[in-house]
Amino acid sequence: MSSENLFELNNVAKRFTKGKETISIFEGLNMHIKKGDFMAIMGPSGSGKTTLLNLLGGVDQPTSGEITFAGQRIDNLSESKLAKWRANNIGFIFQFYNLMPMLNAAKNVELPLLLTNLSSSERKKQVATALQLVGLSDRAKHMPSEMSGGQQQRVAIARAVVSDPTFLLCDEPTGDLDRQTADEILEMLQLLNRQFGKTIVMVTHDPSAAKFASHTVHLNKGKFVKAEELMA
Amino acid sequence: MKDFYLIYKNLTRKKMRLFLTTFAIFIAFLIFGAVMTLRSALNAGVEMSADNRLVVVHKTSFTNPLPYAYVNKVKTLDGVKDVTHANWFGGYYQEPRNQVVTLAVDPETYMTVYPELVVEPAQLATWFATQSGILVGERLAKANNWQVGDQIALSSNIFSRKTGGQTWDFTVSGIFKGNEAKVDTGYVLIHYKYFNETQSWGGDSVGWLILTTTDAALNEQVASQIDTNFANSNNETDTSTEQAFNKAFIEQIGNIGLIIFGVVFMAFFTILIVVGNTMVLAIRERTNEIAVLKTLGFESKRIFKMVLAESCLLAFLGGLLGLGAAYVIVTGAAEQMARFLPNLVLDENIVLQALGYMLLLGLVTGMAPAIAALRLNIVTAFSRG
Fold it and tell me: Which residues in chain A are closer than 8 Å to B9, comparing Cβ atoms?
């Protein structure tokens, strides 16, 4: 394993059983993600993009094969250990923001910090910093329903980075936004990658969005297309 | 405590639903508090009965008198410790509607057989020595503002005086309390001797006998011995434990236990369905949010606890409000009904039972959605959403 690789997938298979039928998403998938990378994953629907994202995020486990993160295998961790691992290492950004509707922006951002031992005042300080980073300090007390889609996604980004994870996973982060807002969000991700060293993997259908990444890989029917050149 | 804010926000996110569900639980515990207090008041006589105390009444009806001679005969029987007797006076104060439960008793033996009645020694001595003296229960004394030394005229709606009229003059010799809150102190004790000598109707008869046995294990044997002893006489007896006697007396107005169980059970069952259904729907609506929490790193068992805590919080919110309302109603009714139900008190046993049922309600209604949240698979939840 290269010391620069944050993620390594070795010979990963993922199959689902639907009734009597077994559906194979991946067979013998190999991949690595370097630390500090900003990778876009593109591909048609059903190509396995979201499944790959789930495997990288530790919300799903492979049928076979190994997944290592910073040299530690995560494919064989218990559900409880995986939850802790996610809390410590991964920030998630979803297409539809997935904010808690009954919590204001600050409380939404604070959620991952509830899993730490930080005091209330420390949590508040970190929340303020994260909201400042995404330019929403003045919206801290606003409820999600009082914010635009772009603002909600910024809150989601603040929530993803508030506990300072190494790795950000973005599932169609601009899929629900207009072009201008989408570009603002992508610039923010770029900033997080370039200035704060976050490793980012972003699934997108949008070639314009993929241009913000440092490189793009294409998935088709569970296989990387032209992966040799892109992962070299 | 970090999770409490989340639990609270989830609980209060839909105000109308919260109000309606809380109201349903409120009603259930209002009924529970009021009905259980009523049962407790009705059963107070049964609960306060001494283990070794027996009651001897006329076999035909407890309203028929027994010869006074029975007192001495019963005293001589094996296993009998102390014997006393009582007569129903049928008293009222000033007007027939102001009924005062008045018993004509033999003071010394009565106080021996009923050690739960507590009187200051000086007052007790005065009462023993004063034939026209009466001992008044604390609750009754407070209700009528009677003090030691007061002259009280009590009338009987059954008996007449030999000298004419139905009113007797008494002096309050003392005020008795109970050695615990549930002991009834809403009646008056007068001297049997004074009553017997001054009343015109019959004489040398007692309403019923009360005795204690040397050992509660001998109760059945002593009861049988008494009834056998007076069998085939003009005044056959029916002897039972004080507890059985009081219970039989209460059951004359129906099986209180069954009625109360029915009411409480129906209320709870209905509420259980309402709250359970609400909790299931509430959690189902939040499938996506639970999946997000899990994705962020919240462990399944933590979410399980949060859902259970939410349903318990809901049960306690409605339950405590309902119990509080029951307390207010019972306290208000206690004054009005003091004459008929002297022990109408929502006591700590009922509160503890209610708290137990609140917890049970919370756990039962929250268990199914909590398990659903525990088992929720992130990938499946997101694919549904």
Answer: 100, 102-103, 107
Provide the chain A residues 170-229 that lie in CB contact (below 8 A) with chain B: none
CA distances from A213 to A91, B6, B370, B374 (A): 17, 36, 41, 37
Closest CB to A79 among B3, B296, B300:
B300
Chain B residue numbers touching A57 (CB-CB < 8 A): 295
Structure tokens at B280: 């299931």
CA angle B38, B40, B44 (to 5 degrees): 120
pLDDT tens by residue, A166-195: 999 999 999 888 899 999 999 999 999 999
pTM above 0.90, yes or no: no
- Indicate yes or no: CB of A59 within 8 angstroms of CB of B300: no
Using alpha carbons, list the distances in angstroms from residue B239 to A34, B20, B56, B375. 94, 53, 4, 63
Please state whether beta strands A215-220 and A38-42 pair in parallel, antiparallel, or not at all (unpaired): parallel
Produce one character per residue of B18-52: b if its CB has 16 or more CB atoms within 10 Å, e if not: beebbebbbbbbbbbbbbbbbbbbbbbbbebbbeb
- Name the residue of chain A whose CA is nearest to B1's CA: A114
Span of A137-141, A203-207, B121-125, B240-244 with lowest mean pLDDT: B240-244
Sign of CA dihedral A174, A175, A178, A179: positive
- A87 touching B (Cβ < 8 Å): yes
> Looking at beta carbons, which residues of chain B come within 8 Å of A175?
none
Count CB pairs under 8 A between chains A and B. 61
Distance, in Å, from the CA atom of A102 to the CA atom of B15, rounded to the nearest integer, reads: 12
CB of A229 closer than 8 Å to CB of A223: no
Among the listed residues B198, B194, B192, B187, the one whose alpha carbon sits nearest the alpha carbon of residue B93: B187
Q: Where are the beta strands (DSSP E) in chain A?
A: 5-18, 21-34, 38-42, 64-69, 72-73, 90-93, 167-171, 199-203, 215-220, 223-225
Across B137-148, average pLDDT: 91
And the tokens for B308? 């259970």
Contacts of A164 in chain B (CB under 8 A): none
Nearest-Cα residue of chain B relative to residue A55: B379
- Residue bearing tokens 């013998």: A28
Closest partner CB to A83 (pick from B3, B13, B294): B294
pLDDT value at A109 more than 70 = yes
pLDDT at A225 over 80: no
Residue with tokens 């006076």: B89
Coil, strand or helix at B235: coil
pLDDT digits (tens, 9 = 90+) for A203-224: 998 888 999 999 999 988 888 8
Instruction: Kindly identify which residue of chain A lies nearest to residue B296, measuring between CA atoms.
Output: A87
Residue partners of B19: CB distance under 8 A and separation at least 6: none
ipTM (interface predicted TM): 0.90
Burial (Cβ within 10 Å: 0-12, 13-18, ≥19) of residue A155: buried
A54 in Cβ contact with A231 (< 8 Å) = no
Which of A25, A83, A82 has the alpha carbon at shortest distance from A222?
A25
Q: How many CA atoms lie within 13 A of A226 on its CB side?
A: 9
- Smallest Cα–Cα separation from B211: which of B23, B50, B84? B84
CA distance A48 to A63: 14
